[in-house]
Amino acid sequence: MSVRAPCFGIVFSSHPIPLSWWVPQTIPIRNAHPTNESTHQRGSSGGNRVIYDSSDKKVTQIVSYIRIRPSFCLGGYIEPLPVFPPPFPKHNFSLWSRHFRVAPPFCQLSTFSLSAVPLVVMEKIPTILSFVGGAKEEVVHPIGPLTASEITRAASLLKASWPANTDFNFKAVTLLEPLKAELLPYLQAERSGSTLVKIDRRAFVLYYIRNTDKLHEAVINLSEGKIESNVRLGANVHSNADGDEILMVEKVALEDKGMKAAIAKLQLPECSVVIVDPWIYGSDGVHDGKRMFQCFIYMKDPKHANEPDANHYAMPLPISPVICAETMKVIRIDVLPTGADATIKELGPYKMHPANEYIPEAQTLRTDLKPLNVVQPEGASFTVSNFSDLGRTVGWQKWNFKIGFNLREGMVLYDVHYDGRPLFYRLSLSDMNIPYADPRHPYHKKAAFDLGDAGAGIMANNLKLGCDCLGSIHYVSAILNNSAGEPLPMDNVVCIHEQDNGIGWKHTNYRTGRAAIVRNRELVIQSIITVANYEYILAFVFNQAGEVAYEVRATGILSTSPIDEGLTVPYGTVVHPGVLAAHHQHIMSLRIDPMLDGPLNRLVYDEAHPMPVSDSNPHGVGYTVAETLVLTSAGLDLDSNTNRIFRIANAAVHNPVNGAAVSYKIHAPNFQKMLASPTSFHHRRAEFADHNVYVTAHRDDELYAGGRYTNQSRGGTGVRSWAERGDSVEDKDIVVWVQFGINHVPRVEDFPVMPCETMRVALKPVNFFSRNPAIDVPPSTQATNKSVLVAAEGTKAEATVGVEGKVCCVKEVN
């Protein structure tokens, strides 16, 4: 039998040639492994043509004649026999390379040695091979988020490499950031005004062939208009969910005959409105190889069934359909336990309970709250400029940095400087895990990775003036992609504003009575995401003392489940009649890529220890602080007994006052680590959740602490695994991962909507400056602040403003 290969591509270089061609499914390809170096490209209906440009020393055209007739295909090896017309330079390629790659649209890539190739009989047939390219893109900034035209172009190039009727489900079309070794010199040259070296723009594309399990990664070189790699990923690797998919899952669940029959058994009131909350299925190692959704079902208050914002989480129903993401069909319906254990009861009439609404019109609102306006009569103190179409450069109070935005991480800060000194190459929220404590099936799989399973960027709110940010506001919008690979405008996903956070520093000379005081003005870079029931308010906060913090405020609505009336359970709290909110943890990972006064940094920690009673410490009051250098990549923990503090330091730069190495300390609150057993899938998957701090050697493709693919993940691809390499981190290009979070034991007060729970990590200078960096902040005065006295009832207050804005006389008048 002979099989025609409709596509065959060749890339020439001084390195071993990656050979890529399309092979029909009838050719078995075994022992295949993904690779990032191969391409497969489809041309017109006439076949493929490769063009060679001698000036650029690149292949641009070739006509080849090939028929593959395997007489032995046990190992899936395929040997091409192309014909090379002149003028290809012989020194620029080697046909008999050791590395060949098979990249068909329906097969995984395989790398194999030519010496192992079994006998394959070739017959020549005319085939035109076509290189898929396009017009070269204009030069833009290397870290500017992809523009609408770039997203369209990347998707179009990829679509053109497949048969015309292929149905794509694009999960991500996003910027592939340049290698740090390329970008750091570019940023330094940009700041110094030197000549900039062009860096190609690349898009990372993640996509499925719709209604299949065929998940692919592709890298598109937008500057050259070509596909650089396109690989199908292996088993147990699943992508994030997307908005179109979630809506389809909801529709499928409600239209399923089995679901309708189950709902009918509940005998809900007439005209009841049932709501579906799709969840990532999770992992337990039991029949979870396919990508699935576990849906939780609720109903609205029948008295307000037409209210679109009714709180359905107050009425959970005891049924949970499981939907296959490939077929978009319900594959089973779980009946949920509602008692104190995992016992399942027959479905019967649902017992109605009172509603519990959160919307303002459902409340009797307070009437004694008067307006508090944040007014900046002279405007904002920050400046914003465009470094690309969608990228922003921010300057404020000696701070200068760039803001990017992507589907997974949302806000990313680059090239952070203070007063001209480099501090951080890249800052971002890397990962987030919310493991639940309910041990009953199917709740035992409930563990959300909100960034990896969905994305902080795609879930970002459209922020509104006067609601989410107060004062003088600058908004940053973004463009992401939808499932069709089309640009998806995201308006006002980041707000930039200033806020007053009390006193910055103060001293009163008691001898003279004079007070020197400044306010603590902060710059806030904020984004808010909604993940079904939960909200997270995410913010980078800068102050005038050279400090930057990352703050998370958790709010929104608890994820609830039904429970029989009158029962309590040890792994959750009854927050409303018939409503259980399970205990859960929120564990975040902040990724810090430092460059404190240069790219080579180290991680140290300080501990305070009491001095023994001795001649030099006769009263036993002395204590010392000892510094320990972390030599290799590792996971490390805080220790309140020794006041252990981690610092990022540059040992080559010394403070002019005391000679200490300049550093920034990590001020992170201690938190309870992952409570699930080390043998559990919760623990295996959330690789960052077992230590306060991880330090690793920098690698460009290691951005996400839980691994690139968290949906139904198995572990082994995150920061714990990277740290186990034992890389040297002493005076190297390092990355520090800081974990923080809360153990959320729900309260009745957390329902129907949760007051904000705040978590904050601060990075503070230690021996980095020669004095208090905020010493030059103008003093706080009444002339500037224009505060107003509030008198006791029955009296009025009068104030006289004296010289320099001081309030020199205050009295109450009856």
From TrEMBL:
Topaquinone (TPQ) is generated by copper-dependent autoxidation of a specific tyrosyl residue. GO terms for molecular function: copper ion binding; primary methylamine oxidase activity; quinone binding. Residues 141-229 form the Copper amine oxidase N2-terminal domain. Residues 372-775 form the Copper amine oxidase catalytic domain. The modification 2',4',5'-topaquinone is found at Y534. Its cofactor is Cu cation. Contains 1 topaquinone per subunit. Coiled coil: none annotated. Residues 245-335 form the Copper amine oxidase N3-terminal domain. Homodimer. This is Amine oxidase.
